Amino acid sequence: MVVENGSIELAGIVKSYDGTTRVVDGVNLRIPDRAYCCFLGPSGCGKTTILRMIAGHEDPTHGEILIGGHDVVGLPPVERRTAMMFQSYALFPHLNVRDNIAFALRVRGVGAQERRKAADAMIEKVRLTELADRLPAQLSGGQQQRVALARAAITGPKVLLLDEPLSALDEQLRVQMRQELSRMQRDLGITFIHVTHTQLEAIAIADIVVVMERGKIKQAGPARDVYDQPQDRYVAEFLGGQNVLTGRIERIEGDSAIIVSPEMRDVVVPLGVRRTASAGDRVDFAIRRDDVDLVRPERGGGERAKVPSRVRAIEYQGNFVKVILDKIGADELIAYVPDRVFYRDPFSVGDVVIAGWEKDKTRMLA
Amino acid sequence: MIDQPSADANPVPVRHRRALAPSRDGRPWTFYVLATLFTLYVVALYGPMVCIYILSFQDVRGGLVFPMRGTSLHWFVDLFTQVRTGDVKGAFSRSIRLAVVVTIITVVISFMSGLAFRKRFAGDSVVFYLMIGSLVAPGLVLGIGVGLICNVLGIETSWYTTALGAQLSWTLPFGVLVMFAVMSRLNNAWEEAARDLGASAWQTTFLVIVPILAPGLVAVALFGFTLSYDEFTRSLLTAGSLNTLPLEIWSMTLNVTSPSLYALGTVTTLISFLIIGVCLGTIARIQKRRAAGPAAH
Fold first, then answer.
1. B182 and B151 assigned to the same domain
2. Closest CA to A231 of A222, A219, A243
3. N or C: less crowded end of chain B, CB within 10 Å?
4. Does A336 map to a domain?
C-alpha cells in the first residue's frame, strides 16, 4: 500500500479508554489534500486524541481513518506517510541539529554521506545552517521548532501533524512562527493538521477550522465562515468577537422573528437556521461586537435595533475600543468601536447609551 | 474617565522585625557555627582512614599504632610478595572480576526493570515490595540463608556462583531504585518521536533511550561496582573456599599484625577512588558535551 496523497477522511471515529466515556465521540470529517486544517477547542475536547489517531500513536475504538484513500488503522506511522511534530518538540537532547534531522534516515539505514547531504538540504530550507552542530538545549524556542519541523519533514510525509506547535513560544514569536508554518506548508505542498486552543491562531492560519467540544465536531469550514457565521452559541462564544443574546420570539413577520427580553424590545432577527421557530420560543442569536454601534439617547433613529444600556467598563485596545455594556440577562453585551470613532465623542463609565445594529447583521443560532 | 484609586492613601505599616542581619563581612554568625560543625564532621569521617593511610607508609620497623616509624613503601611490597599475609593478589583479582560481573548484570537488569516499571503491570507493587524487602533484609542473615539452601541442595559455594547471587540480591534493588530516579527524566515523547520517525523498538532503545540515560546508567554501574567490591556480610558464608578482598582483609585483621594490613587499606581505597573518579569523570564528560558549545562529532 502506498499513500499517494494527503487527503484525510475520518469516518465515525470513536475513542474510549475505559469503555464508557468517549474522548472522541463519532467524528466524521473530510480534509482535502494540501489543506491547512486547524482543530480548535478547549483542552480535553479530544482534538489531540484525533491527531494522535491520525498519526498512528493511538488506535480508534471504532471507525475508519483514510489517508489518500487507504484505511490506515493499525499501520505504523511510517506506512501512513504522516509525521508528527510534538507539543514540546521532543528533540533528542543528545543529538545535534543535523543528527536530529537525519534521525529518520539513520533508522532507515541510509548511509552517513547521503544522510548528511539530505539533512543539510533540509537545514537550509528551515534556515538553520549556522546552527547545524548545536544541541537542542542551545537553541531558542523558535529555532527548536524549526528543527522539529525539519525533522518531521525529511521523510517526505504527505501529512504533517502539529500538536499545539506554538504554545511553547512567547507572543511575538508565535506570530512569526505562524507565518513560518504557513510558508512551510506551501513549500512542502502537503496537508498540515494543526491542533490549538487559540482561536486567533486557528483563523489566522487555517484553510479549514474544525471547532470541537467534548469529543464532537461543532462546526467545520473555512475560517471566515466559522468566525462570521457561527452555527451555535458554543462556536460563537469560543471564537469570540460575537455577542450571543437570548430572547423570546414575540411574533414572526415574514422571514424574521421579532424578539423581546426584559432588556430588549423589538429586535428583528432573520430566522435563518431556526426556520421552524414560532412565537413564544426562546432563541439565541449573535451580533458581531464590531457591528454594534453606540449613540447617545437624544440622537439615534432609523430602522434599527435599539437597546438602551449603560457603559460598565471601557478598555482601550489600540485600533478599537472595547466598550462593555450592562448585561442582557446573563449575556455580555460588548461593542468594538473603532478608536477614531470613539474619541470623537468618548463615553465614560456610567453613561447611558443606545446600542444599535442593522437587522441583517444578526444571525440566529441553532 | 475612570476613577484612579488614590495610591498610598493608607499605606500598610511596615513591621520592623529583627531579621538575621549579616555581619560586617557579609556572613551571619550562624555561618561560622555551621562551618565548624561541618569541619568536625569531615575530620570524624576521614580522620580514622587518614590515620591508616599514614601508618601504611612506615618502614620495616613499623607497628600498628602511632608514632610513625620511618617512611617507606616496605609494607606495600610485603603485601604482594609475602605468603604469610595471605592471598591478597588472588583475592583482589577475584573481587574485581566479581564486581565487574555484578556491575554488568546490575546495569542490564536495572535498566530493563526501570523500563518495565514505567507502566503498570499485574503484580507490579508485589514485585516492588519484594525488592525493597531484599534491600532491608540483614545481609548476614541473607548470606546464612543462601549458604544453608546451597548446603541442602548440595550446591558447592563459590565466589562466582553463590556469592554472585547473594551480592545481586543487594545490588539489584539498589540499582533499580536509582534507575527509578534516572527514568523520571525520560520523556515519553522522545520514544514516540522515534517511533514516528520510523525507528524500531531496538533502535529507539539504543539510539535514543540509552544515550539519553547514559549518565544515570554510569551511576548505576558505579553503585553496583562499589557495593560488590566491598561487600562483606553477604559474601561471608557464600564465597566458598576462596576469599574475596573484604573477606581477605577481615581474616588478615585476625592474624596479621603488621602495617601491611594498613597498606592493603590504602591500596583498596585508592582503587575505589579511582573507579569513582572515572565514573564521575565519564558522567561529567557526557554532560559537558551536551551542554557546552558546538559538539564535536
1. yes
2. A219
3. C
4. yes
Q: Which of A107, A135, A346 sits opposite B197 (nearest CB)?
A: A107
Q: Is A335 part of a structural domain of the chain?
A: yes
Instruction: Give which of A54, A58, A94 to mutate to test B binding, by max B Cβ within 10 Å.
Output: A94
Close Cβ partners of B182 (under 8 Å, ≥ 6 residues apart): B114, B213, B216, B217, B219, B220
Q: Is A151 on the interface with B (CB under 8 A)?
A: yes
B194 and chain A in contact, CB less than 8 A: yes
Region label for B166, one of left (φ > 0), alpha (ψ between -120 and 50) or beta (otherwise): alpha
Residue B1 lies in a domain: no
Residues A165 and A211 reside in one and the same domain:
yes
DSSP letters for B269-292 = HHHHHHHHHHHHHHHHHHHHHHHS
* Pairing status of strand A331-338 against strand A256-261: unpaired
pLDDT in tens, A106-142: 999 999 999 999 999 999 988 888 999 999 988 988 8
Question: How far A279 CA lies from chain B's nearest CA (Å)?
Answer: 43
Clarify whether residues B76 and B92 are in a common domain.
Answer: no
Give me the residue from B189, B212, B293 closest to A94, CB to CB: B212
- Nearest to B234, CA basis, from B101, B145, B118, B129: B145
Question: Choosing among B3, B197, B210, which should be mutated to test the A contact, i.e. which has the most A CBs within 10 A?
Answer: B197
- pLDDT, averaged per 10 consecutive residues of chain B (297 residues), comes to 48 58 72 94 91 84 78 79 70 87 93 89 88 83 84 81 84 90 87 92 92 90 88 79 82 78 84 86 81 48
Measured in whole angstroms, the distance separating CA B203 from the mean position of its chain's CA atoms is 30
**CA A216 to CA A93: how far, in whole Å?**
37
Domain boundary among A228, A260, A276: A228
* CATH number of A162's domain: 3.40.50.300
Is the C-alpha dihedral spanning A44, A166, A107, A92 positive or negative? negative
Identity of the residue numbered A147: V
The answer to whether B193 contacts A84, with C-beta atoms less than 8 Å apart, is yes
**Does A245 lie in the same domain as A186?**
no
d(CA A19, CA A27): 17
Q: How many Cα neighbours within 13 Å face the side chain of A339? A: 7
Q: Please tell me the pTM assigned to this model.
A: 0.78
Strand bridging mode A159-163 / A62-67: unpaired
For residue A3, being part of any structural domain is answered with no
With a pLDDT cut of 70, the percent of chain A lying above it is: 98
Cell numbers of A348, please? 465614560
Contact of B126 with chain A, judged by CB distance below 8 Å, is answered with no
